[in-house]
Design a protein that fits this description.
The structure holds two protein chains of two kinds. Chain A is an alpha+beta fold. Chain A is built from nine helices and seven strands. The radius of gyration of chain A is 24 Å and the shape is globular. Classes of the chains: A alpha+beta, B alpha+beta.
Chain lengths: 253, 575
């Protein structure tokens, strides 16, 4: 009879343990999620927030989960956190109709009127960036890139006019989506945005609580984060409204 | 033109890495006037901490940089400019400000500013005034009041920027129309620009409307024009004017919001505050069971009309009631919000008989009379007869507002506001983390690299194929020429030799013109041709050369034999 090696047995055991562990973890996550949904349906929004937050802080990045968090915060009258999670969800599922509806509802409750009109123009010029999520743009860039080079290889082997035309048609799209994807990576690393979480946040001239109050922002307002210093962020609301706020008064998108 | 004069300068005790200076444009100003504080950093870029400034409100800040070349040395200067507004009168101070340059903290010197009413020389301030005021400083909860901001100007201004008050404790709406007119103030003629806001107090108590702030540039002529030619160029386009920036603010306004008194009526208070009328109409008073009629109730007036709810009406049980979304046409104007709000209700007769719709009642608060008023619609009598065939109410129920009868379509409006439900699918637990940058780069590079590899390989292959093909073509051409009848004996042998050599080069995948017997033997052996073929090929080459150089006379049978042998070797063994 053939003897089974101990190393092989150990390997199989590790695999079984890993698979069992992963299954148990998935089941636990499902239970937590469903308990959050149940708490929300029963009107226990704080419990729902706790359940959904546990999943999000556990590393799950999912637009639907973030949307649910936005709903739960909005129902518990926490506009700042609601907008923050809706914004995070928008980066993952920007085309989701439910999300757009609820985000518009939350945006209607904001007190601060946006002063920069440029994003509207950007939305028209770079519409695909706002229609597609970051992940979709990246995978489209990868997919189009692969198809383009496959066509190039085919053209190299068989010099058909059709293949040449296909390459010419594909090339601008490959360029467009590759550049957009690279911009998305750059923006994720360097262009930070935040949402004001507290009902009323004083934006000050310096990074201390005693610095002069320059203007006031309210919960849910989106700002650009420019610098970080001594527990404060230097934020930019519009071209002429810049100042410092406490880090805990806003959440990074 | 700006005349800056340095009031203070500061240098660090240790050998300074950068030169820090703080200065203001004026050391004496009037209340409500602004001054410019500039912190200049030479030889570095500094972060100015203005948290120590307590006597002034910082309205704005801006940064500029310049490069100077003096005696061949280049230096960079960064200026951070602040617009400061004094918070009180008297001798105020701008304390030493900490400036962090390249991790080192340095301080500017203290600057004293006198804020007094009797400032002289600010002629521009008397030519430009701002005023703010409300129509009623003691309104009731929900009573709309008007806030007006006026800019009185006797000079030409440009680049005006208006910062409206926060209106904390009020729901505020700006009246879109901006008024401009002339007025006489203190004996002088001023051009007035007026902005108005409708304010509705949200709760009883005291509230303060913050100052409104206006910043602008006063446009001045740089110098008096001497003649018509000068005046032509005395225009901002040609740089003939100067601009003096000023900041003005209104006084804060205290508003005491009164609590509404107790409602003396049994009818529930509608929440409306203002002046209102209510009327009702019904489009059909004689019905059969299953028929519908539309009851229309309109509230007209001025006040918080948008908050109006459907007036209370007791509809008999003999009717099924379907309420339509209210329609409102409310416009902000000089008298606040005014317009009308219409409520339509479809009544579907269920039971035959004679019925009376009692009047609809509405209680609102009249702030002018300072008391509640109750108004009511008229009553309606309805007669419902039996239908031959009872209608299916659930199917035949028409929309309110006579839309079906008239064939007009009606815009769908929200009747309630809420967010959409949760997403309950478990795919919400699937992580959507984006592809890491390194993998993205790999996915981009790999297909391109594959293409390059394929292309290089194909090019090498093509090169080899080309040499072999070229030589074979040459061999075939030589054979073809040798077959021609008019070819002389010497040329015939030269063609045969050429065909054979080209075929051997084709076997090797290279090109060439001539070969020795040894080279030919070596090439064919290396390419794996049989010894028989190699021997026959070399022997044929020798035979051709021998005939060529030995001067042998070629008769037709010999030519045919040599041609056949060469052709057979090339086609069957070497090709």
């Amino acid at each position: 009879m053939k003897r089974v090696r101990p190393a092989a047995i150990a390997g199989i055991l590790v695999l079984v343990i890993l698979l069992t562990g992963a299954g148990a973890m998935a089941a636990q996550q499902a239970r937590t999620f469903l308990s959050g949904v149940k708490a929300y349906d029963e009107g226990n929004y704080q419990q729902a927030i706790a359940s959904f937050l546990e999943l999000a802080e556990g590393g799950i990045q999912n637009g639907k989960l973030f949307y649910n968090l936005g709903n739960a915060y909005l129902k518990s009258n926490d506009l700042g956190h609601a907008v923050l999670w809706y914004e995070r969800a928008l980066r993952l599922i920007p085309g989701d109709p439910d999300l757009k509806f609820n985000y518009a509802y939350a945006a209607g409750l904001l007190k601060d009127k946006r002063e920069d009109s440029a994003p509207g123009i950007y939305r028209i010029l770079f519409f695909w960036k706002y229609l597609l999520s970051r992940g979709t743009v990246i995978w489209l860039a990868v997919g189009l890139n692969m198809v383009f080079w496959l066509f190039m290889i085919a053209r190299n082997i068989r010099r058909r006019r059709l293949l040449r035309h296909a390459c010419l048609v594909l090339a601008p799209f490959v360029m467009l989506f590759t550049l957009t994807a690279l911009y998305e990576y750059y923006a994720a690393a360097h262009m930070r945005q935040a949402v004001v979480l507290e009902d009323r946040v004083a934006v000050r001239s310096g990074f201390s609580e005693t610095a002069t109050e320059l203007f006031v922002l309210h919960a849910g307002t989106r700002v650009r984060v420019e610098q970080q210093r001594k527990g404060f962020w230097r934020i930019c609301f519009s071209a002429d409204k810049i100042g410092w706020i406490r880090q805990d008064a806003a959440g990074l998108i | 033109m700006w005349l800056f004069f340095a009031v203070g300068a500061a240098f660090p005790a240790a050998a300074p890495a950068a030169d820090i200076r703080a200065f203001v444009d004026r050391s004496r100003i009037g209340p409500g006037e602004s001054l410019h504080l500039t912190v200049a950093v030479s030889g570095g870029e500094g972060e100015v901490d203005t948290s120590a400034i307590k006597d002034f409100k910082i309205l704005s800040r801006g940064t500029s940089s310049s490069i100077q070349i003096v005696n061949g040395r280049t230096s960079r200067q960064v200026q951070t400019r602040f617009v400061l507004l004094p918070l009180k009168e008297g001798t105020l101070t701008i304390p030493p400000l900490q400036v962090t340059v390249d991790g080192r903290v340095q301080e500017t010197r203290e600057i004293s500013i006198t804020v007094a009413k009797d400032t002289s020389g600010r002629k521009s301030q008397r030519n430009l005034l701002v005023q703010g005021g409300v129509s009623n400083s003691t309104p009731y909860e929900g009573e709309q009041i008007l806030y007006r901001f006026k800019l009185l100007s006797a000079v030409k201004i440009a680049n005006a920027r208006f910062q409206e008050p926060q209106f904390e404790g009020f729901a505020a709406k700006q009246i879109e129309e901006t008024k401009t007119y002339q007025t006489v103030f203190e004996g002088r003629n001023f051009a007035v620009t007026e902005l108005a806001y409708i304010l509705v107090p949200l709760a009883a108590g005291s509230a303060v409307i913050d100052p409104a702030i206006l910043s602008c540039d006063i446009v001045k002529r740089r110098k008096p024009s001497r003649n018509s030619f000068d005046s032509f160029f005395d225009d901002s386009f040609f740089g003939g004017v100067a601009r003096e920036p000023v900041v003005l603010q209104t006084e804060p306004i205290a508003v005491t919001v009164q609590k509404l008194p107790e409602n003396p009526f049994e009818t529930r208070f509608s929440g409306l505050v203002g002046q209102f009328q209510v009327e009702a109409d019904i489009d059909n008073r004689n019905l059969k069971t299953g028929d519908s009629t539309t009851l229309t109730v309109s509230i007209t007036g001025s006040g918080n009309l948008m908050d109006a709810e459907r007036p209370e009406m007791e509809i008999p049980d003999a009717f099924k009631v379907y309420e339509d979304a209210p329609e409102a046409e409310i416009t902000p104007g000089d008298n606040g919000y005014s317009g009308h709000k219409t409520f339509r209700t479809a009544l579907v007769a269920v039971t035959p008989g004679r019925f009376e719709l009692p009047p609809g009642k509405l209680v609102y608060f009249d702030p002018q009379a300072e008391k509640y008023r109750r108004i009511a619609t008229g009553a309606f009598g309805l007669t419902v007869g039996s239908a031959d065939e009872p209608a299916d109410l659930n199917v035949a129920m028409p929309a309110a507002g006579k839309t079906e009868a008239r064939g007009n379509k009606q815009a769908v409006e929200f009747t309630g506001r809420d967010i959409l439900a949760l997403k309950e699918d478990l795919d919400a637990l699937t992580s959507q983390k984006p592809l890491p940058l390194i993998w993205f780069a790999l996915y981009l590079v790999l297909p391109a690299a594959s293409y390059l590899a394929v292309r290089t390989g194909a090019r090498l292959l093509r090169k080899e194929m080309t040499a072999r093909r070229k030589m074979m073509l040459r061999a075939e051409k030589a054979l073809k020429n040798a077959r021609k009848k008019e070819v002389s004996g010497e040329a015939f042998l030269a063609f045969l030799h050429r065909a054979l050599v080209a075929a051997i080069f084709a076997v090797n995948g290279s090109t060439g013109e001539s070969l020795t017997y040894l080279e030919a033997e070596k090439i064919m052996a290396e390419k794996g041709l049989s010894a028989d073929v190699v021997g026959r090929t070399v022997a044929l080459l020798k035979k051709i050369d021998s005939a060529k150089y030995g001067g042998r006379v070629l008769d037709q049978p010999l030519k045919a034999g040599l041609l056949a042998e060469t052709r057979q070797l090339i086609k069957r063994s070497l090709a």
